[in-house]
Amino acid sequence: MKKHLIFCIALVTLMTSCVKEPSILRRLTAKDAVAIPYHTGQTVNFMDENGDTLAFTVTYDETKPFSEDFWEYPYDSKMSIIRQPWCYARTVGLRRDSDSNNPELIFTVIPEKFLYFNWNYEMGITLPYIDLKGETETVDVNGVTYENVHVNQYYNTQTSELWHLWYYSEQFGLIAVKNKEHSLMLIP
To answer: Are strands 137-141 and 104-110 parallel, antiparallel or unpaired?
Structure first.
């Protein structure tokens, strides 16, 4: 009888130790989700560094579990090692046409209103995130004044040369983005 009891305890212990912890996903609030003002099928026009007009169409708009590790965003180290989904994110992609070699703009918002932006131009460039709860500015871009704009600038720490600059508004979306070689400015 004692052997059966020890065997049952060992078996139960073994079975429960193999059970994964349930994923706890933080949900996007409605306020978080609308931080990206684009919707599928919408066309947004930008002017590039040569003065040409580029039409981008919103090709996808997805809300799904998010498990990527972004070094800028505070996360639980245990969760990053396991790489389990830990929140929901809304991702919206804009593309010039169906050719995958053309530039693509990808916006991702996660709970507590952190916005990530990937500018896929020649090589993908993920710019430092914007805390949409942070301070805003009034900026003038291409003769148009925009209020409540989030500004993110990234400089080379050794030369103080501007590497990336982007302006983002929850009302208009991407207003401008610029690096050493390329730029896009919203055409309202």
So the answer is: unpaired
Single out the residue of 31, 94, 19 nearest to residue 61, CA to CA: 94
Query: Going by C-beta distance under 8 Å and a sequence separation of 6 or more, which residues neighbour residue 21?
Result: none
Q: What range defines the domain where residue 177 resides?
A: 24-186
Tokens of 93: 């992609």
**Cα dist. 94→59, 100, 128 in Å?**
6, 11, 19
On whether the CB atoms of residues 46 and 53 are closer than 8 A, the answer is yes
Q: How far apart are the two ends of the chain, measured CA to CA in Å?
A: 81
Euclidean distance between CA atoms 27 and 87, whole angstroms: 6
What is the rounded distance in angstroms from the CA atom of residue 188 to the CA atom of residue 162?
A: 26
Instruction: Name the pTM for this structure.
Output: 0.73
Residue 4 falls inside a structural domain:
no
Phi, psi of 47 (to 5 degrees): -105, 135
What are 84-97's pLDDT values in tens digits? 457 888 999 998 86
Q: How many domains does the chain have?
A: 1
Residue 42 covered by a domain? yes
Question: What is the rounded average pLDDT of the residues 158-165?
Answer: 78
Is residue 84 included in any domain, yes or no?
A: yes
Alpha-carbon dihedral sign for residues 82, 87, 60, 174: negative
